[in-house]
Write the structure tokens for this entry.
Amino acid sequence: MKLYQTITIAVTAAGLAQFAAFGADRRQTYEELAASSDKVVLGTVGVRSSHWGDDAHIYTDVLVYPDVTVKGADEGAMTVEVLGGTVGDTTMTVSDGPELSEGQQVVVFLKRESNHFVVMGRSAGSLPASSAEAAAALDSTFTLVERSARIPQTYKRGLAGSAIARATNTVTSHVQTGCYGTDGAKWGTTSASYKIGTSIPADWASSIDSAAATWGSAGAAFKLVNDSTVVNELSYKDLVAAYGSSYANTFAVTTTWTSGSTGRITEATIEIGNKWPWSSTGAANMADVQNILTHEFGHWMRLLDIYSPTTCSEVTMWGSAGYGETKKRTLEQADIDGFISLYGGYRWWRQHNFDGAVADFACERSDWNFGHANPDVDRGHQRHIL
């Protein structure tokens, strides 16, 4: 989950309130991304090599071959390190991570770290060349470079324009339906447990549990349960120190481990960034715990971030948030639809028998009417209890 990139901690409360009201759909602009990047290229993704890190996380080294270097020195193939990947039968996925598929042509914003690069802005900093956003990203970067160098980039603009025109769509596992997105992975059970780690401030527990309960009452056949004995831990940490500068603008990150052979999630964690001011009351110039955690628990179930179209900006799974925002505490219909698409829906019925006895029983969403034209008359009154 990202902070609106135009908001900083030093911004006044009045400025924050105005931006939250009118800029709820913004992330970092392409010009801001370009300014904070050491290199911006239109390139082709080559070989990917994943490995376990010393921190028990999977990292992937991705070779990117520049076709046009828009910002920074021209050079050969570059190694880009991303958090997540597949080793053996285990796939580790992080929320809002850049998707760099082998053979894909991309516009990518890069920051140099040690002997490799990282993607600035995470998914915002990696755009398929075939997407409408790629041309806008290139134009913003060229404009920044031209303004700085005072030299027109006519030749490189022409090369990039030709490459964009030839770019084709790349197959991806991510599927967006309306205002929700999935990638096929999910838990293989009807519940998953989470543990609130010792690094989490104690007074956040009720906000975290409320965030989990929001999904549990959404009508899907799946619940989240607080259980201090499990390994699926929520923690509070310095994300930049742990994972590098590409996480400098991130409120929290959800990581899931999935079996490649079954597509089922086996473990999940949420790491909350400790550089931000946090509140459990929706304070105007602070990040709201329940707001952010409701979004992150959506990733826990494997719903993806949504960034377009802007008509989707009110959904809980919209991928950016601002100080004082609380609207993600409650789910929109698209969030519920996405959740039920993964785990199915349940509704509870109350049956009044002829002898006066009352019995409650559950049925799957596909069986709600039981073939009756008027279930309220034929079977009695119905209600949700999930």
